[in-house]
Amino acid sequence: MRRVDDSRVIDTLLRHPAFADRAVLEKALSGRFFAPFVHQEVVCGPRFEARARLSRAALAGVAAETVRGAADEACAHLLGPRGVPSLLDDVRRTVARATVRIALGDDLLDSVAHAAVADIDRGIKMIGRPDMQARRALGAALEGVLDAPERWPAGSYLGVAREQALALDLGERVDQVASVFLATGTIQVSDVVTHALVALAQTPAARGATDEEVVAEAVRCWPVNSSITRQATAEVIIDGRRFPRSEPVTVVPASLPRDATFDPRRTDGAAGWAFGVGPRACPARRVAPMLAAAVLGRYRALGVTIEEGYAHDRSLAREVAARLGPGPAPPRTSFARRARSRAVFAGVCAESYPLAFLDGLSELRRVLTERA
What we know:
Blueprint: E1 2-3, H1 7-15, H2 24-34, H3 45-61, H4 64-78, E2 82-84, H5 87-104, H6 110-124, H7 132-146, H8 157-160, H9 162-166, H10 170-202, H11 211-221, E3 228-231, E4 236-238, E5 241-243, E6 248-251, H12 287-302, E7 304-306, E8 322-324, H13 335-359, H14 361-371
Parallel strand pairs: 1-6
Antiparallel strand pairs: 2-8, 3-6, 4-5, 7-8
């Protein structure tokens, strides 16, 4: 896979219509991560366009008051002084409840949605094997909700994008709500909030910044997308560089030149391609930071202390113990717990990549034949 690091080329490439599809192996990995749901990012053509219209309408139409109100309700219901072995798990629980309310208009599916989303997130981070029972339970619960449009609350994602949702059949609606609105929406916001809390705990000089400034800087320092992959449907020449048809390319936002210092007050804090650009740009660039800032503010008001010596990196695969509210810093995560986590990570990685390769093998053969 060809890696692109030139910012001028990246912007043109991601906006070019010939680079509307993701690379084969990336799609295969996503297929495994979100199974049994089919994510919007792995489909193409009219099917992708129909689902993208739903995403854009829902995320553009939902009111700021709905987003902030859902965050306030979730935090009021779940937050309180305590020690937590995994800050990310705690944040994800809170964000999942808020996201369910934003998407569906109530929190009746809160528990089943959180169980499935947490399982999907562990799979994406390669720290857990899939629990298909939890995921299928979410699918079954969503079928009942999504097959009754007359009961969709007006201010929810479903309510503001009713026309676009009804243009999809029931199975596509379930896939879209489960994988995009609930799973991706929760996971990306949870990662941003966790990164922000860890960075604030380790950078006292940044604590005077606003919640919005901290979120923007967290997105800049630890982009929500580990990589952005595309595959050309025709030969393209950009800035004198030739990209053959079917050649997979990748952009790694975290590796692009930038100041690695966490400084929410910076004036050059553009998040670059964190949410992507072009036909497959993430339409959540308004809602995700808004929800993240609202949840972050409640955690900051409570107070968060993390274990000493935590090595902060983008993946968040390594747990960080935390104390919410007043009290001493939590003890460091034990060596045995860390060792078990590393062993699981190694095992899941060893399984996931070869299996994804096999999943995508037939399409990969087709692509290679086209390039020959």
